[in-house]
Design goal:
The chain is mainly β. It has one helix and 21 strands. It folds into four domains: about 30 residues; about 80 residues, no CATH class; about 90 residues, Immunoglobulins (Immunoglobulin-like), CATH 2.60.40.10; about 60 residues, Immunoglobulins (Immunoglobulin-like, Sandwich). Strand 8 and strand 9 form a beta hairpin.
């Protein structure tokens, strides 16, 4: 027996085994891509454009899961629908869809926005208690979105805080927020803004405060403006830029430049001069 022939056969066998291993590794790596979509069920299905694999053999997607369960949707086509109605979901339920695809191609979800939380709340009641607590109750929340609390003052609606929404459709959701009223009649409301960027508002709640009207001095200032009580305030320069804002009984004006300024405070608007 030729010893060189034996070594050659062994070398060939090792090469074949190495090539087989590399083929298996390459095949496993080609199934490495995931598209993950997370949101809330809004009663609509997903539509996916599904190209051929980069190799030209078969389509790109090889598996789709909804909340961890493999779907029965037909993926072996140029486009397919992920039918979410088959997964016993209620409106507003949290959902995670994973589209697994070969690494040399990429499917495209045509309508991913259908999983984004949408503002659908309906206000059952909204009022302000004697303890200055804004309370409101809602139904039909299709997704978890923050409620933005706004107060009407200075001829505009002003942001005053946020409360996280519960996002439950089949129940009455109750919320509360501690308000800081100004003197006289107060108006408050809440709103949500979803992916459409169109706000959805509650009705307005009113509250009559017994706080005394706030005033300030001096009208020509060198150092500090003093209010007669703590108040929310905004200071604008002559170009309409906010240069100071807050909630206090005084304003440090030492770093303001000389000139005219406009002042919003309590439920009033005024102006003052910075002397130097």
């Amino acid at each position: 027996m030729n010893p060189f022939e034996t070594n050659s056969n062994e070398t060939n066998l090792q090469m074949r085994l190495l090539l087989a291993f590399l083929l298996i590794l390459s095949t496993s790596l080609s199934f490495a891509g995931n598209i993950v979509l997370e949101g809330n069920y809004q009663g609509k299905n997903l539509y996916v454009r599904n190209p051929f694999a980069g190799s030209g053999v078969g389509f790109c997607t090889y598996e789709v899961t909804v909340n961890g369960s493999v779907t029965t949707d037909e993926w072996n086509s140029s486009a397919f629908e992920v039918d979410l109605t088959l997964h016993n979901l209620d409106l507003g339920d949290h959902i995670v869809v994973v589209i697994k695809h070969k690494d040399d191609c990429a499917p495209k979800v045509l309508n991913p926005e259908v999983l984004n939380p949408k503002s659908t709340f309906e206000t059952q009641s909204i009022a302000i208690s004697n303890e200055c607590i804004l309370k409101w109750s809602t139904t039909n929340e299709a997704g978890v979105l923050a409620y933005v609390v706004e107060q009407y003052r200075w001829n505009k609606w002003v942001y005053v805080g946020e409360v996280e929404g519960a996002g439950r459709t089949g129940a009455v959701n109750n919320y509360s927020f501690k308000i800081t009223p100004h003197s006289g009649e107060n108006k408050f409301r809440v709103k949500q803004i979803d992916y459409t960027a169109v706000p959805r508002y509650s009705p307005t709640a009113t509250y009559m405060s017994s706080k005394p009207v706030v005033d300030f001095n001096p009208k020509k200032v060198e150092a500090n403006i003093e209010f007669t009580a703590e108040t929310m305030f905004e200071v604008f320069d002559i170009h309409g830029n906010i240069v100071k804002k807050g909630y206090s009984s005084k304003i440090d004006a030492t770093n303001l430049k000389k000139g005219l300024y406009y002042l919003n405070f309590d439920n009033a608007t005024s102006e003052f001069m910075k002397k130097k």
